[in-house]
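Q: My labmate handed me this sequence with no annotations at all. I'd like to see what the chain might look like in three dimensions before we decide whether it's worth expressing. Could you predict it?
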Amino acid sequence: MDKIEWGTFFTDSLTGIVVLIIGLILGGITGYFQGKKKSSLGIERKNEIYQPLLDELLPMSRSELSVLVKKETPMLKEIFMNDYKYGLSTELQKKCDHLYSLVEKHNQINIVLIAHKKIVEIFEKGYEELYGSIIEGVSIHTDRDGNGYEQEHEVLPVELIRRGNFEKEIISLLNNEGMYDSEVCVDKSNNYFVPIYSVLVRIYNAVLLTKMNGEENILPPLKKELNMSPAEYIALHYNFFEIFNSDIQITKKIELEEEIIDKSQELISDLKGIIKKIVKTYEVEEI
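A: Here is what I predict for the chain of 287 residues:
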């Protein structure tokens, strides 16, 4: 049996121990920096993705927000357009995509334009009731092939209300639904007044009482006797909001608004859960 060489034995053992200690130290250092990297990444995602998105969605989650307000969602749009950059979970990405599609559909419905069209329709009906046809005359034309055709010409007030820019007045009207700010007397003997929207009266008067080249436009004789101005009559007898709110596009916008509020609240809840987990894991202050 060979004699044990104790010097070699102790040297090899010491070398092994040193290697083991170095390995443990290096492993600990590597683990420490990996943990720091993971911590840093988690905090960075919280600060650059989750919290900004949450802050952007908060206004959309409130039911008192007016449907007139166009929803601006740059962070949500960025996540939708460039999903590959953010590495969201499949479920969270689907929720973001769905919410963004709802917002886009909502923004595409221009309720001011719809309101203007309804005002034009109401005015045309009111004008026909009070003055007769909205067609002032017909002119005969000939095309390049010698074929004759007729062109109808609408009365000036109708042309003006169609072409006019009443956006400011319409926004004011839509923001004050149910809040009448004027009234008209419908029964003088009993001193009976009915509330109306003064902004509608102003719009109708603007086109009925217009002047061309400094001269007032001459209206046809009234077909019925009135105890109020024609503008007040149209504003009173044609319920703008009843007509406006029954429009299919307005109904759709309101439905989209309700769904956006619901889905925003759901997504906010998810984001708060993610942020809470990151804070608890990496940012809780130990005292």
